Amino acid sequence: MKNPGAQQDVSVSQGVRMMFYLMKPSETSFQTVEAVPDYVRKATPFFISLILLELVVSWILKGKPSGRLDDILTSMSAGVVSRLPSLFFRSFEVTSYIYIWENYRLLELPWDCPWTWYLTFLGVDFGYYWFHRMAHEVNIIWAGHQVHHSSEDYNLSTALRQSVLQLYTSWIFYSPLALFIPPSVFAVHVQFNLLYQFWIHTEVINNLGPLELILNTPSHHRVHHGRNRYCIDKNYAGTLIIWDRIFGTFEAENERVTYGLTHPVNTFEPFKVQFHHLHYIWATFWATPGFFHKFSVLFKGPGWSPGKPRLGLSEEIPEVTGQEIPFSSSASQLLKIYTVLQFAVMLAFYEETFANTDALSQITLLLRLSFIILTLTSIGFLLEQRPTAAIVETLRCLMFLTLYRLGHLKPLFPSLSSVFE
Ligand SMILES: [Zn+2]
Ligand SMILES: [Zn+2]
């Protein structure tokens, strides 16, 4: 079921404040879940503006950009892929929440009371901490979450590197809230909790003084993204770092952090980024003897194998030297600029599609979805300089022209429509 709230307006002031959870209960309390705006979708211009701002600030402060084009495109591509199911369905997190609320709720807190709002803020953040911790400690949940850790850089675009699978496990950790908190209040906070985590993915902010005691900050979250041994399985917080301090998973930033997976995936291809660990689990599952051991492959830590403790052995994590060379594209500057332009055109179609989901037929939505996926795959192939890249890109261009000709894509600039004709 689609969400009519997706059409509701968010002012520029609200747009800026929602990126930092600086919203008031009075402006973000809704009676029904249908009335809740799709804040995350409306955040796209703020994501892009802040990424550009970070590039400039990094250039001024450090004399170099905050990221690399190939890595930024791959992160943004994962962000787009992770949102595609919501073209057809309401978020699985919210759908399952509504089901539990409608069938099993014990009491109904008032949706318009500020205390409900603040309690939900705490409840969602607490649920996020445990979801996130399990996403690192349970291999099958890690299969989704590893996407977010697959960048070897750390900048605002890394925040957008999200998994398309994650929603299908995170709902479990929020379900106790559905016993007493109305879905409309939950649907607001689960979005703000995600949006808050955008700005902390940066190296241009060092230390925030006393705020570091309570809030999750860029410094704390840099540790979370590290593959240095001291960083592994630390700082799971969403908004408040207090949960890590309480449950013993806090670690302050000290030696320089090297980012990414302990075994980098080395790809720009969106499907491999999203699903490579599932493939690895599948292979390990069948290669591991014994029913209980197979069960453990799924539900113990990603580093586990028979004979090891639940979370594996820390001495098996490759030691970082600080000299690691991140996976980079060998494509020419001209080809990289081409991929950026194609990504920008795709993003305009993506935005236009989300803004008009109700007006578009299912077949148009499916065709546009295929075009978006093919574009992202082709960009990945071009950046990796794969031998088949030219064929995939030609197919993509043919698909574009066909969809345009059949009226499934509208011209972005009507004055240019004669060029396509
Ligand atoms: Zn994580
Ligand atoms: Zn992160």
Automatic annotation (TrEMBL):
Example of a GO biological process term: membrane lipid metabolic process
Subcellular location: Endoplasmic reticulum membrane
Enzyme superclass (EC): oxidoreductase
This enzyme's EC code(s): 1.14.16.5
Family: Belongs to the sterol desaturase family. TMEM195 subfamily.
Protein purpose: Glyceryl-ether monooxygenase that cleaves the O-alkyl bond of ether lipids. Ether lipids are essential components of brain membranes.
Annotated protein name in UniProt: Alkylglycerol monooxygenase
Organism encoding this protein: Nannospalax galili (Northern Israeli blind subterranean mole rat)
Gene designation: Agmo
